[in-house]
Amino acid sequence: MEKIRWDRRSVQDVLQEFRISLDAGLNTEQVSENQKKYGWNQLKEANKKTFLSKVADQFKDFLILILLVASVVSFSIGEKTDAMIIVAIVIINAMLGLYQEGKAEKAIEALQKLAAPNANVIRNGVPISVPAEQLVPGDVVVLETGDIVPADLRLVESYNLQIEEASLTGESVASEKRAEDICEEDVSLADRKNMAYASTILTYGRGKGVVVSTGHDTEIGKIAEVIQGYEEESTPLQKKLARLGKQLGIIVLAVCVVVFVIGILQNLPMLDMFMTSVSLAVAAIPEGLPAIVTVVLSLGMGKMASKHAIVKKLPAVETLGTTTVICSDKTGTLTQNEMTVVKVFVDEHILDVEGEGYEADGRICHEKEEVDVETVPTLERLLEITLLANDAKLKRLENGKLGVMGDPTEGALITLANKWDMYSKDYEEAHPRKNELPFDSDRKMMTTFHENIGKNPVVSFTKGAPDVVLSRCSYWGKNNEIVELNEELREKISKVNQKFSKNALRVLALAYHSFEKMPEEITVDEIEKEMIFVGLVGMIDPARAEAKEAIKLCKHAGIIPVMITGDYKETAFAIGQQLGMVEDISQAMMGTELEQYNAEQMREIVKDKRVYARVSPEHKVKIVTALKENGNIVAMTGDGVNDALAIKKADIGIAMGITGTDVAKNTAEVILTDDNFASIVDAVQEGRIIYSNIKKFVSFLLSCNIGEILIVLVSILMKLPVPLLPIQLLWLNLVTDSFPALALGVEKGDEDIMNQPPRDPQEPILDKKTSIRITVQSIAITIATIGAYQYGLHHFTEHSLEGARTIAFVTLILAELLRSYSARSESHTVMSIGMFSNRALTLGTVFSLFMTLIVVYIPFMRTLFHTVFLGAEEWSRIIPFALIPFIVGETYKLFHKSTNRTQV
Ligand code: ATP
């Protein structure tokens, strides 16, 4: 696109250039035209591996290379079939590896799409949300506080707009933006006040902009030609396993050398012993563990996403499972965020409002009778404020119900006015907004400016948290007069506020201020002062039923749920009580109280507080820090721009998918697509299941591998011929073992997993219990296989060695397959969890069995694998031997006990 200096053009010029109007935006035809012309609004992804490099990666493993060298050696000295089979097995193994990697990659790509940002645009005259990558030049983008600018925009409307452009200019102080400015020739990028650049952050205010450049044409696109794709950060578990793999690898190699030396001392053929040792090393070194962990973690991410938690980084999947405290917002997370005004306090009367939801059905009553304007003369002014200091819209949804576009708190205020036959459209047309100080959760208020209201040329309307608004009011407008707000009157209002709050109502105060003309300086301190108080509204926001259940579950699981809210203490406590989070008001605390405590005192405070009210973003950081210092693993939700710090500080930062800002979503590790507390608990549960599954397959694979080593080592020590041929070992390990292992990774988890306390993140993957379990299992596998082998050696007269080896080979495979069923739960018997309830395992077992039968029953394969035909009699011996490890595993569970850990 030819580079036009849009900052030097007027707004009108820009609109003309793109043939659009501000209200209509582009039409569908223009969008597709521009999309063809300019492409997608995205940058190339870095480090995308080609298919060939992925294939090459599969062969990079040192052991696989040794194996290939070994097969070349055996080929050159005439052992052609064996050499070729080994190569074939290596290729099958590589294909399986590619398949698994592909699966993990797909899961992650799908998640990335889900987590990709959206942009609010006006197209065909309708405001809609589209994926940011679908923006085209000419699109009219609506910007709100907390948005990350999705493309380069020429601003066309701005209200107190401030944008932080550190990603582009390095300057971390937000700069003010003004749509009406027109820049001079020589201004630098940082001084172009009428432009908003892609990747910068709206820290305050709101506005609209027309997209002028997308993708690589944007300023950030020119600096960063590529975006970093998904970062493949190793998780602590992957690192631990890689280390463990290395340590075990060294031990295995040492044992293989011993096997080789003993074999030579026993005058066994050198080449045979060399092949046996190499195959044994390849089979028994658990080098593939971290790769399987990646697959299991990525699949787990997919599962969490289907339960409304999009996990952006692999390590978070693991951390979730160790969570000991969940700090959650209240509104919308623990409550339904479906507000209905039920009480109004005006002219010293408490009015009741009938009806539920956003429909205007219901009356505003005073002592059961519809209100009379004579007795409540200020009601109309109060409703005027609720309509005009309001950004929400009510809209009929597809299901026929009225819904809110915007903040439900504001939606409820529109409904309230509608019940008195006052409508936004009429008021907004008669008194359009001339300026505003937008709501922010630090200030807890918002103010708008309108002209010609009554006799006043300019009026500001303010609504916000009662304590904040009241502290900035000097008068009270009631019963057709304006009186000074003395202590006694303040006390009166406070009492009503408390009464509402104690009934779990969310309370807002409404006030106004008149001006002779539009003030020049629209700043908080200048404007929101000496206001005239008008009244209070109290709205219900029912607690989520599922949140109550989730809190119960948390308590069973040794996880402490904590509420951190911007709302009033009494309201927060009342909701907390309904949800079963708190019993006594002493467990609730105001955010401002925290300011007086130092770090050490904070560590004490957080031990028994469960509800923090009137909290500002800095308080959140203080709470997270103290909890973490006490050794907790903290999950923390957030939605606003200022929450980014607390989200970052928490072990698991969680952003709200519906109400959260781009900034919060960008910083968080987890995005909740339904903003629901219960989904956090589901994700924690899933995290626990994933970890326990990883542990299951690690201990399964290791016991199989150690078993194989022991079988060869013990037989050699017993001066028996080697029971498993190299190709059998490889076949067994690379082809038949991996399916059950993967299937264990997707086990649905023990039902009582949330009855156990959180796991200590420092806990080694091979703790004492797991190590003992692995030892017992590998010994059981060794005894079963050598027992069957001995039987085979005495049973067959002809082909006695090949027959005995076939029996050992089949027994070992069967023993491992059966044992995988027992490995499905560390504490519950397989019968109690349902033999076939893991479909992946059933399929994996059938496949592995099928592969085994091929090797035994297809004559051609028999020749290749040096096996013999097995009849019913042999099977009748193999099966009891193969059952040994399974029976041992199931019996072992009877001795299982869990360890405890609780914190806070
Ligand atoms: P949570 O932090 O649990 O989501 P919250 O929604 O009450 O709770 P904030 O959004 O930070 O937290 O709001 C803080 C306070 O500001 C509210 O208790 C209310 O009194 C006031 N408030 C909320 N929304 C608005 C609004 N749109 N306009 C004016 N004041 C508001």
Explain what this protein looks like in three dimensions.
Belongs to the cation transport ATPase (P-type) (TC 3.A.3) family. Type IIA subfamily. With 904 residues, this protein is α+β, with helices and mostly antiparallel strands. The chain has 5 domains: 6-43 and 117-228, Calcium-transporting ATPase, cytoplasmic transduction domain A (Distorted Sandwich); 51-115; 238-303 and 683-896, Calcium-transporting ATPase, transmembrane domain (Up-down Bundle); 309-335 and 544-675, 3-Layer(aba) Sandwich (Rossmann fold); 340-540, Calcium-transporting ATPase, cytoplasmic domain N (3-Layer(aba) Sandwich), CATH 3.40.1110. Helix content is 48%, strand content 18%. The strands form 5 sheets. Strands 12, 13, 14, 15, 18, 19, 20, 21, 22, 23 and 24 form an 11-stranded mixed sheet that branches. Strands 10-30-29-28-11-25-27-26 form an 8-stranded mixed sheet, sandwiched between helices. Strands 2, 3, 4, 5, 6, 7 and 8 form a 7-stranded antiparallel sheet that branches. Helix 10 runs antiparallel to helix 25, helix 25 crosses helix 28 (768-795) and helix 31 packs across helix 32 (859-865). The longest helix has 41 residues, at 677-717. The site of adenosine-5'-triphosphate has 19 residues, from helix 13, strand 19, strand 20 and strand 23. Adenosine-5'-triphosphate (ATP) is lined by residues 329-331, 407, 409-410, 439, 441, 444-446, 463-465, 506, 508, 565-567.
